[in-house]
Amino acid sequence: MKNKVLKKGDKAHLSDLKIGQRAKVLGLHLDKPELRRHLLDMGITKGTEILIKKVAPMGDPVDIELRGYELCIRKEEMKNIDIEVL
Amino acid sequence: MKIALVGNQNSGKTTLFNLLTGTNQKIGNWPGVTIERKVGRIKDLGDDLVDLPGIYSLSPYTIEEEISRNFVLDGKPDLIINIVDATSIERSLYLTTQLMELDTKVIIALNMADRLEAKGICIDTEKLSKEIGTDVVKISALKETGIEELKSIIRRNKNAQVKSKEIFKSSLENEILKVRNELKVNRFMAIKILENDKLYQKYQIAIVKNSRQKLEETYKMDIEEIIANLRYDYIVEIKNKSAKMKSVKESMSDKLDKIFLNKFIAFPIFIAIMFLVYYLSVGVVGSFTVDWVAGIVENFGLLVEQGLTNLGASNWSTSLVVDGIIAGVGAVLGFVPQLTILFLCISILETTGYMSRVTFLLDKLFKKFGLSGETLVPFIVGLGCSVPAIMSTRIIKDNKERDLSIMLTPFIPCSAKLPIIAMFTGYFFADNSGLVSASLYFFAIAIILLSAIIIKKLFMKNSGTAFISELPEYKLPSVKYVARDVFDKVKEFIKRAGTIILFCSVTIWFLLSFSWKLEYGIEVEDSILASIGNTISWIFYPMLGTFSWEAAVSAIQGLVAKEQVISSMSIIAGFAEEIEEGSMLFKSAAFKFFTPISAYAFMVFNLFSAPCFGAIGAMKRELGSTKKMLKAIAFQTALAWILASLVFNVGTFMSSF
Ligand SMILES: Nc1nc2c(ncn2[C@@H]2O[C@H](COP(=O)(O)OP(=O)(O)OP(=O)(O)O)[C@@H](O)[C@H]2O)c(=O)[nH]1
Fold it and tell me: Which in A45, A85, B613, B649 has the greatest CB count within 10 A?
């Protein structure tokens, strides 16, 4: 998926998005159950809209906007979140 | 009545707690400041209020969240005040819906009401209250609005009865009802049992498993996801009915982040800010206030000496007061100005929200060395004092990583080390004292990173935690809070000077004035302290280039409190001969051997060696065993010795060219 510019309707991982892009969550695939639970609790559920808002100077972590608030999360976890580009 | 204050991290719980109880607990604009529960009494109501660590859900993710959950479940509060950040109700009400499943009355305090307008949010509290089924009140803990109304709601709800409300789709509600009827449990437990929560393993009977299976088949998701989804669906529904959001232009925080998180200048800004902190507290303001205060202490000493002699006091009692107490305690008090500035800087950095940016900024760098962004929180708190910093490691989820941070946190130069740094740099690096002090801070960070990667590589394979945290908005610090915070910390420092340092000064004076045979009026070299020091001075030879019992005994006293090193040195200097005029400590016979290089080496030793007893105690508590604690301080002290010796020898070698 590298270097490819994602268009509306493309299916990808949250980590593939660029700053300013929006996407809808399709599902979470995390190995650690508590971590998955925590992300669900934080509102990353199926259908949730996410905006990539800020990226740290070194490229990681990323600040995303969802449900009217901002959350910092690492690329590593973002790789395990399936999305559809909006 | 016992009231629990429950809410998300950074929602303003502690601010409200302070306001209601009239105390000044620590607040900070980053998630996870409250790590222990605190109890206070609400003014004019007389009820006990318990401030709990912030949580996002009743399924705990870290230890501190577990503390909150356990209190809510087992502590039997009579009432819960759920503090909700009104600017992000969607996420916040998630916890609310869970709290309302318990059998305790929940009052919702919509905090940060003062910021709603700027964020283009309009909330109809009456509607929300009707929809969600409990009392809702808009407040601002910062601007102190809505507090009286909150209090009257509390008054009204003493002994209130509650009935939990069904909020999910009927397909799920039916199964919840089945579980409730079968197991005779409340709504909260029924849901947790359905979710297969660890807390209620023994309830996993066939009926429960059937229900779960049925739901998972219908929704094609696992049960946790189903419940989380439906909960959020419900919240979005009531939110749409009771709140309106206007999209606003770029917020102030976003604008500021364009600067503070800018790809190119973010790091230079961070470094500049840390330099500024040390420059302000040690550099500029530092040296001239110290000289001024030292002058006062000295003149005061002379005055007291004269007074006592006039009163006919004996030689030894005059010496105890002047050479012991005034010299020892006065030396430490001379640094109050610098500490005040340091505390002020820290308090401002903490409350504005910049500290959260530091975590965001450095996470990747720290991760390269095997530490996560969360470990930065203790390293930042550690600028003030290691004890709360060590406690704040509780936000770190991975146990090994947590142990590692506990061990490395004391390396950060805490405020009690500032007097040592200020005194040495002020004399040896006069014009660059701010720069040299800041260099010690960055040296500490470098050593922390190096130690982390070495320890990780050697002893801990495959560990690591996820970094999930909120990025709070920038806020103007509250002058009232900052003033009180700084005042409290300075007061604490002065109190220590009047107790521990005073006690040690008397002890040191005694050990310096008497020989083993308890003779008074001896040469210093024959004193008890000198003989103790002489047996250990070899340890410090490699970093000082000379055998100095004076420096050796002083460094050891850092165990009591780091500033005691200065106190001890100043007393010893007073006893030593041939003090030139001006009575500068480094001109006395005892310490004139110090060169800039050995001064730096000695500072390095004091910075990295075992922390004070207070911090050692905190390490023991948080590590959970004496053995681990001993290992940690052995590691710290050995490392300190090696680094200090290296600094001295490499420095000496280089300066010989
Ligand atoms: N504008 C505004 N800011 C507030 C209000 N209440 C609290 N704050 C600020 O929000 C930040 C967090 O406040 P705390 O009281 O430390 O929050 P907490 O919920 O105790 O946080 P944790 O201890 O991390 O769980 C601080 O910077 C406060 O000054 C409010 O009503 N309005």
Answer: A45
